[in-house]
Amino acid sequence: MHSYHRIHPRCTFGSHVASNTADAVARAREIAMGKSMEFLKKSK
Fold it and tell me: How much is the pTM?
């Protein structure tokens, strides 16, 4: 999929559909947490 939203630095995709695999949920969570931590480090 080619979407501007997938590469936008301020867009984080989460997981909310029960059919998502555990691996996909873990990857989404890891990406979201990494982006959140980067933001918090920069805001000091």
Answer: 0.53
